[in-house]
Write a structure and sequence with these properties.
carbohydrate metabolism; about 850 residues; Alpha-1,4 glucan phosphorylase; about 45% helix; Rossmann fold; alpha/beta; 3 domains; nine-stranded mixed β-sheet; globular
Length: about 850
C-alpha cells in the first residue's frame, strides 16, 4: 500500500515576491535571474565624506533626530543603517544566478552578538566609519558600545552557528540560516547578594536596524486537531491533518556579510504571530483580556529562549517552539526550491539541510508530511528525498541532553507527525527482522520509541535515522558517539557517522576581538594572514624573538588593563593587571566543573593563609556564565563562587595574591573583552562529556594557555599546539568510565587528599556562609557520596597542574613563547576549514 496525498497549489517565493504555482515557471525563474541595477546614489569620490553624509541622512530621515538631540543609541542606529545599505549593495552586486545547491542551517540558537564591528571589518570600512563619525564629533567606540547583544542564543551551540554562518558567507557557500527571533532570548543575569537573578533581555526595545521584515514570507503553523483518512484509489490512501490551532510565522531577515564583502548570506528568523490580533466579538462583549488570549499564546513561542521545562506547560512550549521554527523553515525552503526548479523530487540535489542538535529533529516527519500531503509524493519517494536532504549534528553524549518527548504530548500536539513517526519506526523495526535481528534488547535499543520509563520519542534516534550523515564535533566525541549513545544504530550503518571538529571565525575572534594582536601578526608575517589563517604559523619563528616578545607582552598588558577597568566598573573589585588572569567562561553546568575550580580556589586560599610570607604567584580567578533558571545546583555553585570571592577579596592577609571575580551577564561582547586578556584558559570538564568546546579555541587563538582534561577538542588542540604548550591533567575518557565503575571512589579520593578534605570541610562548615552554615551542604554532600563528574578524583592532579602553571608564569619569556606558539598553531581551528569539510563530505557542495 502506498501513502499518498494530493498536492495543492501553494504560494512560492522568489526574492520574497509571492507567486502562485503552478505558473509560467520559466518566466518566474527568468525574472529572478534578471540582472540587478544599483540605484544611483550621490557620491563625492571621498569614502569618508560619503559615509559621513550617509550617517547624517539616516539620523535625520530614518531615526528622526538631529546631531544635537541624538543619543548614543541613535548614532548606532544611523551608523548601522548606513552600513546596511552597503551590505545590500554587496549582496545585489554579487552573482544573482540561482546556485546549484544551497545549505540550510537550522538552529534554535544563533549567538551573533553585536554586528556593527563584524560588518565594518568584513566590508573593510572600520577606519572609514571611524573617520566619518569623528567628523561628526562622535567616537566609534561609543557607537559600538551602544549596540545591544542580539539575544538569540545562550552558549557554544549558538556561537558555533554564528561562526558557521559567517564562514559560509566568507568562503562563498550559498546558505540560509533559520532560527527564532526571540523577543527576550535567555535572560539578563544580575546578582543579588551573590544569587543569580533573571530578568528579561530587552535587546529589541528600540528595534533592530539590521533586519528586514518580510511579511510576504509568512507561513501557517498548525498544532493539535485530528487526521482524516480517505481512499484515493485502490491501495492508495490520502491522509489530511486538520489542526485545531494555527499561528503565523513571519520572516525577519538579517544579512550575514562575508569577508571583504564578496558574499552575503541570510539569517532568516521567525516571529510568531496570532492569526487575528484580537477577538473583536469578545473584546466588544467586555472580555478585554480574553480577547487577546490567543495572541498571547501564539507570541509566547518566540518570546523566550529555552523556557523552563520543569512543568508540563513548559515542556509543551518548548516542543511548540521547535516545531514552529522547523516547519516554517522547511515550508520556506521547499517553496523556494519549487519556484526555482519546478520539481520537489530534486530537492536533495539542490538543498542540504543541517540540523544543529536535536531541536529541529522534528524536521524528519515534517519534511515527510510536506512531501506527502502538499506535493503528493509516494512514501518511498518522500523517504528517499528526506534521507538524502537532512543531516544531523550531535552536540552531546549526556543522556539528559538528548531530547525525548512524551508520546502523549506528541500525539496531542502533532498527531500527524506521530503517525509518520510510528510508520517510520515500524518499517525500521521490520527491516531488523528481515536481517535476522529479532533480539528484544536490540530492537528496544534501535527503536525510535523508548518504552523503558513511559513511552517517549527519541529525537536523537529520529534525527539519526532520517539523515544522510550524522556528525560529531571533535574526534573524541565522534568516537564516543559510535561506541555509546548511537552504538547499535552505528552498527546498522557504519558509514553514517563522520567527524567534523568545530571551528571559530577568526574575523570575529582575532581581527575584531583583538586588533592589537592582529596588527602584530600582520607586521610579522604579512597581510596575507588576514585572508589565510594558515599563515599564522609564521608567528612560530618569533616566539623567542626578544623584540617581538616585548611587543606581544605590551599588547597583552594593554588588554588586561582594559579588562581590569571593566571588572572594577561592573563588580567594584580592583585587580592587578600584572597578575595571572585565570579565566573560566562558559555555561554553568556540573560537568563543566566550575565547582572544581572553586574548590581549588578554597584550597589555594587555605595554603596562602597557612604560609602568608611565601612568594605566591599572584592570580585573578575570573568566572562568567549563566545557570538555567531551574538548575538549582548550578545556581548554588554561582552563589558559592560569590561567597568565596567575598571572603578572599576582603582578607588583608591574602592581599593581591588571590582575587576572585564573577562577571555578571556573560555575553559575546563581554567575551570579546575577556578573551584577549586571558592568560590561562580553564577547560576542565569531565573527560568524555564535552562534545568539543569552542571557547577553548578562542582563548588559545588569542594566546591563553590551556589547563584542561583530555576532553572534546582539547585533545586536538594539544596535538596542534604541542604538549609542551598546554597543561593537561586528570583521567581520560576511558579512565573516567573505569573509575565510575569502582565503588566508593569519592571517599577514597578524599581520603587520599588532605588538602581536598580540608577545602570541603571549610565549605561545609559555613565559613563562607556564616549566616546560613548549611547553605553549601548539598554541594559538599554530593561530592562526598556521589560525585558524578569525578571532581574528587581529578582534584590532586588539577592542583599539581595549577602549581606547575605558577612556576611557568614566573618565567615571562618562557610563558610568552608558549602563548605565541598557541596563536601560531591554531590556524586549523578556523570555521572556514570546518565549513569546507562539511561542504565536501556532508553537503556535497562544490565550492568555486
Amino acid at each position: 500500500m502506498h501513502v499518498l496525498n494530493e498536492a495543492p497549489t501553494l504560494p512560492v517565493t522568489v526574492d520574497d515576491k509571492v507567486h502562485e504555482m503552478p505558473a509560467a515557471h520559466a518566466a518566474t525563474v527568468a525574472a529572478a535571474k534578471a540582472p540587478w541595477t544599483k540605484p544611483a546614489l550621490p557620491t563625492s569620490g571621498d569614502p569618508v565624506v560619503d559615509m559621513r553624509e550617509a550617517i547624517r541622512a539616516k539620523l535625520a530621515y530614518v531615526v528622526g533626530k538631529t546631531p544635537a538631540t541624538a543619543r548614543e543609541r541613535d548614532w548606532f542606529a544611523a551608523t548601522a543603517l548606513a552600513l546596511r545599505d552597503r551590505i545590500v549593495d554587496a549582496c545585489m552586486a554579487s552573482d544573482q544566478s540561482v546556485p546549484n545547491k544551497r545549505v540550510y542551517y537550522l538552529s534554535l540558537e544563533f549567538l551573533i552578538g553585536r554586528l556593527l564591528s563584524d560588518a565594518m571589518n568584513n566590508l573593510g570600512l572600520v577606519e572609514t566609519t571611524r573617520a566619518a563619525l569623528a567628523d561628526l564629533g562622535i567616537d566609534l567606540g561609543t557607537v559600538e558600545g551602544a549596540e545591544p547583544d542580539a539575544a538569540l542564543g545562550n552558549g557554544g551551540l549558538g556561537r558555533l552557528a554564528a561562526c558557521f554562518m559567517e564562514s559560509m558567507a566568507s568562503i562563498g557557500l550559498p546558505a540560509v540560516g533559520y532560527g527564532i527571533r526571540y523577543d527576550h532570548g535567555l535572560f539578563r543575569q544580575s546578582f543579588e547578594d551573590g544569587w543569580q537573578r533573571e530578568a528579561p533581555e530587552t535587546w529589541l526595545a528600540e528595534g533592530n536596524p539590521w533586519e528586514f521584515v518580510r511579511p510576504e514570507a509568512t507561513y501557517a503553523i498548525g498544532f493539535g486537531g485530528h487526521v482524516t483518512m480517505a481512499m484515493v484509489s485502490e491501495g492508495v490512501i490520502r491522509r489530511s491533518w486538520h489542526p485545531a490551532e494555527t499561528i503565523r510565522a513571519v520572516a525577519h531577515d538579517v544579512p550575514v556579510v562575508g569577508w571583504r564583502g564578496r558574499n552575503v548570506n541570510t539569517l532568516r528568523l521567525w516571529k510568531a504571530e496570532a492569526d487575528a490580533p484580537v477577538d473583536l466579538a469578545r473584546f466588544n462583549g467586555g472580555d478585554h483580556v480574553g480577547a487577546v488570549a490567543s495572541r498571547v499564546r501564539a507570541e509566547a513561542i518566540s518570546r523566550v529562549l529555552y523556557p523552563s521545562d520543569s512543568s508540563t506547560d513548559g515542556q509543551e512550549l518548548r516542543l511548540r517552539q521547535e516545531y514552529f521554527f522547523t516547519s516554517a523553515s522547511l515550508q520556506d525552503l521547499v517553496r523556494r526550491h519549487v519556484t526555482e526548479r519546478g520539481d520537489v523530487r530534486s530537492l536533495h540535489h539542490h538543498a542540504a539541510i543541517q540540523l544543529n542538535d536535536t531541536h529541529p529533529a522534528i524536521a524528519v516527519p515534517e519534511l515527510m508530511r510536506i512531501l506527502l500531503e502538499d506535493h503528493g509524493l509516494l512514501w518511498e519517494d518522500a523517504w528517499h528525498v528526506t534521507t538524502n536532504t537532512l543531516n544531523y549534528t550531535n552536540h552531546t553524549l549526556l543522556p539528559e541532553a538528548l531530547e525525548t518527548w512524551p508520546v502523549e504530548l506528541m500525539e496531542r500536539l502533532l498527531p500527524r507527525h506521530m503517525q509518520i513517526i510510528y510508520l517510520i519506526n515500524w518499517m525500521h523495526l521490520e527491516e531488523q527482522g528481515r536481517h535476522g535481528r529479532h533480539d528484544a534488547a536490540h530492537l528496544a535499543s534501535v527503536s525510535l520509541i523508548d518504552e523503558s520509563h513511559g513511552r517517549r520519542v527519541r529525537m536523537g534516534h529520529l534525527a539519526f535515522h532520517g539523515s544522510r550523515r550524522v556528525n560529531g564535533v571533535s574526534a573524541l566525541h565522534t568516537d564516543l558517539m559510535r561506541s555509546t549513545v548511537f552504538r547499535d544504530l552505528h552498527a546498522l550503518d557504519p558509514d553514517k557517522i563522520v567527524n567534523k571538529t568545530n571551528g571559530i571565525t577568526f574575523r570575529r575572534w582575532l581581527h575584531n576581538a583583538n586588533p592589537a594582536l592582529t596588527r602584530l601578526a600582520v607586521e610579522a608575517v604579512g597581510e596575507g594572514v588576514l585572508d589565510d589563517p594558515g599563515k599564522l604559523r609564521g608567528l612560530d619563528a618569533f616566539a623567542e624573538d626578544p623584540a617581538f616578545v616585548a611587543r606581544y607582552a605590551g599588547m597583552r598588558r594593554g588588554r588586561k588593563e582594559a579588562l581590569a577597568a571593566i571588572i572594577t566598573e561592573r563588580t567594584g573589585i580592583a585587580v592587578d593587571p600584572a597578575a595571572l588572569f585565570d579565566v573560566q567562561i562558559k555555561r554553568i553546568h556540573e560537568y563543566k566543573r566550575q565547582l572544581l575550580n572553586i574548590v581549588e580556589t578554597v584550597a589555594l586560599y587555605q595554603a596562602i593563609k597557612a604560609e602568608p610570607h611565601k612568594d605566591w604567584t599572584p592570580r585573578v580567578k575570573i568566572f562568567g556564565g549563566k545557570a538555567a533558571p531551574s538548575y538549582t545546583q548550578a545556581k548554588l555553585i554561582i552563589k558559592l563562587a560569590a561567597d568565596v570571592a567575598r571572603a578572599v577579596n576582603d582578607d588583608p592577609e591574602v592581599a593581591d595574591r588571590l582575587k576572585v571575580v564573577f562577571l555578571p551577564n556573560y555575553s559575546v561582547s563581554l567575551a570579546e573583552a575577556i578573551i584577549p586578556a586571558a592568560d590561562l584558559s580553564e577547560q576542565i570538564s569531565t573527560a568524555g562529556m564535552e562534545a568539543s568546546g569552542t571557547g577553548n579555541m578562542k582563548l588559545a587563538l588569542n594566546g591563553a594557555l590551556t589547563v584542561g582534561t583530555l576532553d572534546g577538542a582539547n585533545i586536538e588542540i594539544r596535538d596542534h599546539v604541542g604538549a609542551e604548550n598546554i597543561f593537561i591533567f586528570g583521567l581520560d575518557a576511558a579512565g573516567v568510565q573505569a573509575r565510575i565503575a569502582e565503588p566508593n571512589y569519592p571517599r577514597d579520593a578524599i581520603l587520599a587528599s588532605p588538602r581536598l578534605a580540608a577545602a570541603l570541610d571549610m565549605i561545609a562548615s559555613g565559613r563562607f556562609s556564616p549566616e546560613e552554615p548549611n547553605r553549601f551542604r548539598p554541594l559538599t554532600d554530593d561530592l562526598r557520596h556521589r560525585d558524578q563528574y569525578l571532581l574528587t578524583v581529578d582534584f590532586e592532579d588539577y592542583w599539581r597542574a595549577q602549581r606547575e602553571i605558577d612556576v611557568a608564569w614566573r618565567n615571562p619569556a618562557g610563558w610568552w613563547a608558549k602563548a605565541i606558539r598557541n596563536t601560531a598553531r591554531m590556524a586549523w581551528f578556523s570555521s572556514d576549514r570546518a565549513m569546507r569539510e562539511y561542504a565536501d563530505e556532508i553537503w556535497r557542495v562544490r565550492l568555486t
